[in-house]
Amino acid sequence: MLKVGVIGCGGMGRDHIDRLTNKIQGVEVVAVSDPVAENAKLGAAICNGKIYENAIELIEATEVEAIFVVSPGFAHKEPLLKAIELGKRVFCEKPLATTADDCLEIVKAEVASGKHLIQTGFMRRYDRGYRQVKAALESGEYGEPLMLHCTHRNPEVGENYTTPMAVHDTAIHEIDVLHWLTDDDYESVQVLMPRVTKYSHAQLNDPQIMLLRTKKGVCIDVEVFVNCKFGYDIQCEVVCEDGSIKMAEPAYPDVRKDAKLATTIDTDCFVRFKDAYDVEVQDWVDQAGNGVIAGPNAWDGYLAAVTADALVKAQETGNIEPVVTAVEMPEFYK
Ligand SMILES: NC(=O)C1=CN([C@@H]2O[C@H](COP(=O)(O)OP(=O)(O)OC[C@H]3O[C@@H](n4cnc5c(N)ncnc54)[C@H](O)[C@@H]3O)[C@@H](O)[C@H]2O)C=CC1
Ligand SMILES: O=C1[C@@H](O)[C@H](O)[C@@H](O)[C@H](O)[C@H]1O
To answer: Which of 43, 68, 257, 271 has the CB geometry, 3.0–4.6 Å to 32, for a possible disulfide?
Structure first.
């Protein structure tokens, strides 16, 4: 049994504690930590774990063998560096950290430790729909990808959600999954700002259209619309030389009533990606004994952050901005 400590017991933290406690095999949550005592209590109640007031104390606790970091992105770096120092395996929710510089510091610390310790929570790589699209692309039957049309729509966000968060918090998923899907790297990005919805607020330009160009010349458009009102709607179509592959929608029955034909659209990521989170976390646990990170690693977290920083710059300038890493991918990750 892998003994895990969870840092951050908010919405996603409690979702993961429940998953680790009630669904995933070979793991138990023995400790939790959250600066908001009420959240720590709610988290501990799910798993019967010990509450630590401080995240660092939790990481240092001898009974804690591995760590889940589910605090807000700005608070990820410190626990990650401590876990690396102590050689403890980590599952870190996205983003790895909020700036490329911080991510690089984490990458360098992991490389220096000589151990593969960190998985970044880009769960879409484990989603059945994206995996089907990747398998179709890899079959070669459709030729090379040329264009991708994607949407990332949330029903609504709070007043604390700002324009850059459309990148760091939301499009960060597309940034990771689309480069994995196309097996390509980003060259440049641009952001178009359409008319703002009446449901937005002063700190948020919503919707946004993010354009990414890969090194092989694939052009990607991602509509990020976080107050779309009608549901949680994730779409991805890859247009190739010999055909087009559109990701399957989650399957719900078609219902006929009152002269109308309807189906269900999910309303949040916890439902839309439930299976992906389960598969992702089981994989992280299963690989623990092998000392391997089979999913997205710290380098993937860094690459995503570099691209995110370029997109945030593009939001401000309106220009096409280059995506440039400060270092080449270390041998350690090849
Ligand atoms: N993969 C995915 O689809 C999703 C990932 N996330 C990620 O999960 C993480 C947490 O997000 P949510 O649970 O939605 O946020 P939240 O705001 O609901 O919860 C965050 C929790 O962390 C606690 N916290 C704040 N500072 C802390 C610190 N320094 N150390 C420990 N805990 C601290 C807060 O008190 C709160 O209980 C973020 O990194 C977010 O991006 C969130 C939702 C979906
Ligand atoms: O990661 C997530 C949230 O943090 C983010 O706020 C949402 O926009 C994303 O759809 C969700 O997957």
So the answer is: 43
Nearest CA to ligand 1 atom 25: 71
295 Cβ below 6 A of ligand 1: no
Q: What is the token pair recorded at 231?
A: 């549901």
Q: Would you state the structure tokens that stand for residue 180, as one six-digit string?
A: 């994995």
The pocket around ligand 2, CB under 6 angstroms, is made up of 154, 169-170, 173, 226, 269
The ligand with the least distance to the CA atom of 15 is 1
Question: Distance (Å, rounded) from C-alpha 21 to C-alpha 18?
Answer: 5
Fold (CATH) for 128-268: Dihydrodipicolinate Reductase; domain 2 (3.30.360)
CATH class as words, domain 2-124+275-297: alpha beta
Distance 253 CA to ligand 2 centre (A): 26
Angle between helix axes 11-22 and 274-286 (nearest 10 degrees) is: 60
CA–CA gap between residue 288 and residue 200 (Å, rounded):
43
How much distance in Å is there from the Cα of 308 to the middle of ligand 2? Answer: 14
What residue owns the CA closest to ligand 2's atom 2? 170
Per-residue pLDDT of the chain (334 residues; tens, 9 = 90+): 999 999 999 999 999 999 999 999 999 999 999 999 999 999 999 999 999 999 999 999 999 999 999 999 999 999 999 999 999 999 999 999 999 999 999 999 999 999 999 999 999 999 999 999 999 999 999 999 999 999 999 999 999 999 999 999 999 999 999 999 999 999 999 999 999 999 999 999 999 999 999 999 999 999 999 999 999 999 999 999 999 999 999 999 999 999 999 999 999 999 999 999 999 999 999 999 898 999 999 999 999 999 999 999 999 999 999 999 999 999 999 9
Give the start-to-end residue ranges of the domains of the chain. Answer: 2-124+275-297, 128-268
What is the three-class DSSP state of 79? helix
2-124+275-297 and 128-268: same fold?
A: no
Question: Could you give the dihedral angle defined by the CA atoms of residues 248, 249, 255 and 259, in that order, rounded to the nearest 10 degrees?
Answer: -90
